[in-house]
Amino acid sequence: MVISQDQLAHFNSLKTPFYFYDTQLLERTLNFAKSEADKYGYILHYAMKANVNDKVLQAVHAHGFGADCVSGGEVQKAIDAGFSADEVVFAGVGKSDDEILTALSHDIFCFNCESIQEIQVINELAAQEGKVAQIAVRINPNVSANTHAHISTGLKENKFGVNMSEMDAVLEVIAASKHIKLVGIHFHIGSQITDLSSYKNLCVRVNQIQEWFVARHVALEFINVGGGLGIDYYNPEVNDVADFKAYFAIFAEFLELRPGQKVHFELGRSIVAQCASLIARVLYVKEGETTNFMILDAGMTELIRPMLYQAYHKINNLSAIGTTLASYDVVGPICESTDTFAKGLELPLSKRKDIIEIKSAGAYGEVMASNYNLKTLHRSVYSDEVSVVI
Ligand code: LLP
Fold first, then answer.
1. Which domains does the chain have, with CATH numbers?
2. pLDDT at 150
3. Per the confidence metrics, is the pTM higher than 0.90?
4. Which residue is closest in CA terms to ligand 1's atom 1?
């Protein structure tokens, strides 16, 4: 997404900070993901946690995705956004009783269960409601995602899933639970995975695990391999759509399926990350002793990824016209030193009121915003509404 002069003029007329959504890019991404998945009959769920902006959800739903939820709030939001309950899955290590009841009330497709105790609680609550809950057991495959430790989930030390050593006990509990039906197994090894060999390793591990189930005559309707496909934060203009072709091809090549078995995916970041930028204004440029500080009106309250995961987001000064460069620490207004987007970044000479674009912010951006320091994030702007004066 490259911002046009018309868009810049529009941004200049608006209160900042806000998220700007490129709806055409979102369409292109959804079309590509869906058509590549359709080649293999793969079923796609959109990981709502990445972004629950209404317009985004409408577009995702219109392209035939189901919803992957991690809270009762997300389950309800998915239903409200029009996703059919039979394409809603509910994951998470800590589902509360209320959240489970919400999901049961909608008869969702499947609970991705992460512990024996959780299976027992879902069974009890389903019995109370006179229902049978479909579940998939989330298995911790102990496969590395080669990603940032904070967003790695499939290793033994992570809190997610059930270890294979516990699986006999899990099957015993399921056999004794009349209000539970085991329909699949679930995996998710981490997020922002750019080394696709991690997925090959996952497939190899899933194949072994499938043998384990076959040996016990347990039939599984589907394998849910989670999400995690990474995007190119460094060259977002060039690689604006993730490599869904290579991604799905890995599963097609390495995952061994039993007759009739389906494969489910839960993609978040790769669907929405490139489709939005955080737009901010320069409030002040302060010359420090060792660096210049570019102080924006957006900070960790609008986009916390750089502060939380040392994540890189490309930053452009959309207003600057000169070719002279200067080095800046790009920081937010929040009263914390960690409120820094980038250090020593070379940008065109910048001044107060310049419009700054922080790219690839569509996933885990707006949803992770907070009102710490009582900051206000303004209404989102969409590329297909740019002529509208707000
Ligand atoms: N399925 C499960 C069970 C998950 O836990 C996640 C993400 C996904 C699917 C979707 O993963 P994706 O395709 O978006 O990578 N806030 C962090 C990312 C946290 C990811 C949590 N789980 C960040 O900003 O990088």
1. 5-18+274-385 (2.40.37.10), 23-273 (3.20.20.10)
2. 66
3. yes
4. 226
